[in-house]
Amino acid sequence: MFRRRPPLPPFPPGGVLVGGAARDWLRGVAAKDFDWMVPDPAGAARGLAGALGGTAFELDAARGYWRVSAAGGVQHDLVPRPADVEEDLRRRDFTVNALGVLPGGRVLDVVGGQADLRARRLRMVSRENLRADPLRAWRAARFELTLGFRLEPLTEAAVREVASDLAGGRLPLPAWERVRDEVHALLRSMHAARGVGRLEELGLLALTVPELREGRGVTQGGFHHLDVFAHGVEALHQLIGRFPDAGLPLRWAALLHDVGKPRTLARDEPTGRASFHGHDKAGAAITAQVLTRLKLPGEDVRHASALVGAHMVPLPASEREARRFVHRRRALLPDLLAVMLADREAARGPMSSEASRRAYARGIERVLAALEEQPSAPPPLLRGEEIMALLGVPPGPRVGEATRALAEATALGEVTTPDEARAFLRAWNAPN
Fold it and tell me: Which family does the similarity line name (predicted)?
């Protein structure tokens, strides 16, 4: 049963509410993004902005698109009303999105969308509509996950056909930015891991992150009970269960943390035991390639790939080592700990035990305690000019080495004053 329907915003003159907002209103879900078809977008936008206390501005002069930004992050997009509204609805992707709402709550339903809403069924308006914009295949997976609906069999077959034709070059691939937005909407869900699995079932993961699929069937043993692919998906599940507010770079890092394993796989001939030396560094490079292809912001690419590259660092066994851990990886914390914990909790192979898990948790606790004790790096005790004068060296790599060594000693509490810093650097610079 759907919830009680929320109040509708004021209708612009001659306006029809369409798309996701119409669907969600019928489901009893309050929308934040409203799509309107109106005879006069400019006038309607100004009137709506006045009624809502928002701001109206032109989005696309050539096509007559306007937008109103209102309080609470609510957004209204207004486009010219077509001569035949029902025909426009018939060109939509799924029946539950081919609904219109008129003033007073009267519903335009030309393809049976309300019945599909009640049945929680995701059904295409037509096969031709799906193929007209192949991005709708990704949208099908996303809607299944975020709406809690299920693809009806003919629609699922059509989605699989689109994926096959995209892979075979018989349909053009959508722009990566559009694919990214659909995948990100899926990854933001609490059920993102299931969504990744659904992309794989529908043939869409091979078009999105083929590198991830290289781990299918790559068995690991030891601490692991799943193959490399399933382990990455489980790590994403573990991450979201423990850190539901995790951002997208962190979610990507959890999913891709072992993406380098298939390309670094070596097996010992007598025993068949697998090893993956250097998979963390290989995975960091692959992660950067994947996320760059998907057009993520550069900072997000760098952060996610750095997390993947660092996820194998040993946890500290003492308070002093915890302070060193924090100093060397401060820029990645606490996200790095979240990836490491998700990795560990996703691994339940024959070598895993309650004792090993408790030991791992203690290592994480040491790092968190050190981070709480020193949430930011201590200020430098000596300036670069002082270091050069003290060591008698010109600007160059040696100054950088000395600066880093002194910064670490300061973070560890080994030096606390400028005089101690000078003594430390003299000893550090002395010939062996």
Answer: Belongs to the tRNA nucleotidyltransferase/poly(A) polymerase family.
CA separation for the pair 15, 80 (Å, rounded): 9
Give yes or no: residues 321 and 266 share one domain: yes
Which H helix or E strand runs over 135?
helix 135-147
CA distance 370 to 401: 24
Domain that holds residue 278: 255-373
- Per residue, the 3-state secondary structure of 22-46, as one string, reads HHHHHHCCCCCEEEEEECCHHHHHH
- Provide the pLDDT for residue 350: 60
Would residue 235 count as lying in a domain? no
Supply the pTM of this predicted model: 0.91
Among residues 100, 251, 115, the alpha carbon closest in space to that of 188 is found at 251
Say if residue 144 is exposed, middle or buried (CB neighbours under 10 Å; 0-12, 13-18, 19+). Answer: buried
Residue 207 located in a structural domain: no
**Does residue 317 belong to any structural domain of this protein?**
yes
CA atoms within 13 A on the CB side of 113: 29
Kindly state the percentage of the chain with pLDDT values over 70: 97
Tokens read off for 195: 């969504």
